[in-house]
Amino acid sequence: MKLILDGKINRTYVQTLCMAFFHGEKFPKDEKDATTVLYVKTEDREGGIYCEAELCTQNGKERATSFDAFSGIKSYERVSKTAVGKAVYEAASKLTGKSLPWGILTGIRPSKVAADLIKDEGKGCASEILKNEYLLSDKKIRLVTDVAQNEKKIISLATDKTCSIYISIPFCPSRCNYCSFISYATPKLFSLIPEYLNRLMLDIKNTFETVKSLGLKVLCVYIGGGTPTVLNESQLDKLLSCIGNCIDTKELLEFTLEGGRPDTITEEKLRIAKAHGVNRISVNPQSLNDSVLEKIGRKHTVADFLMAYETVEKSGIEHINTDLIAGLDGDTKESFQNTVDKIISLSPGNVTVHTLCVKNAAEIRKGGAAYETDDKAASASVDYAYDRLTECGYAPYYLYRQKNTVSDLENVGYSKPGEEGLYNVFMMADAHTVFGVGAGSTTKLVFSNEGKTEIKRIFSPKYPYEYLQDNQNKYKEAEDFFKKEV
Please, are residues 353 and 414 in contact by the beta-carbon 8 Å criterion? Predict the structure, then answer.
């Protein structure tokens, strides 16, 4: 797509909005042969900003205009975005026949926008602004305002003197065809696990020493991947013992182990996890439809999941999460609804409902094959999950969005009261520092002062074999960052 922008216009915002209508669209620097062209022009006029947009494709041409007024505490950037967003949205909607449930609101954390509006305007006015300015559907307004209020309590637990630690186990028993994470499932790479663990444990010790030297308190430890339970019993015990030697895990608010794949969970692994203080575990079916599981490359059945879930339930680990994905290949509205109903009948403390995100690195995009991401069944599935889960006492508390999701939908964490997952909220909200340990992890240093927040990211090497050769001194970088800010 070729963009021609005239005025003070945020190019990234326009690109992101266009991608919601034209999934997988690219914006190359050399746009000579583009078949789709969008022209956007803004003018500062008395009292506000005027915008006109013209969208030309092989299917026709549409033009739209918009004016947004300066008023109250609205910043110039906000007025500009809403003026541009409304004009682009109207032109694209006319041409494609699509309406977006999130309207012109883009960005990974819509709940941050809602929280700011609630703080400044009150919940009632915030809902009106989300409807009239940002063009959100009524259901998304209820969702995002509920999340904003529910996550506020969690965010308040984090301060400049707290942090969390993420530990990466980037190995999986098989790779799902939608997966773009750095995770591995080949015998050659599995052979790296013993060496990887040794290096990982050294970094874990160094990280906890850095945390102590900075005077920080660890609230959460999250072991993710990949699939951490791909480790055998002795390897898992070794890893958890290392963590336990660095911190009294009973002092943690949350100690999470991603089980992920039901086919990697055993009674002995759960006994080890419980003994070392793990109080939260994920066991993720993604779907309770065997044909869908086979299509996406999972190496387990619905029966395997139900057996694993029962084992987890009997383990005594306090909090259980299950992950579901709407929009998977072969899933229908009816089959996803059946999945949601079965999960509710199991009564886990937390249910996370993702929407399929189609990324370039995923197997389903290999060979340049197009993947149709405009799926009405996914929209109906996500809506059903919201209705049923809230009806059954689960509250939405965690929400984020990604580019190239099916039908421009979202990912939401639902929980029973008191069973919210803290780490994900801390991480997504930039609430405090998160130290990443292991291949593919990111350390995010956060410091706030007088209402301003500074963030520095330190990226670990993506691949295990690169991580084993890495000599970066991120501990000194962390110490230097906080010394500078104090």
Answer: yes
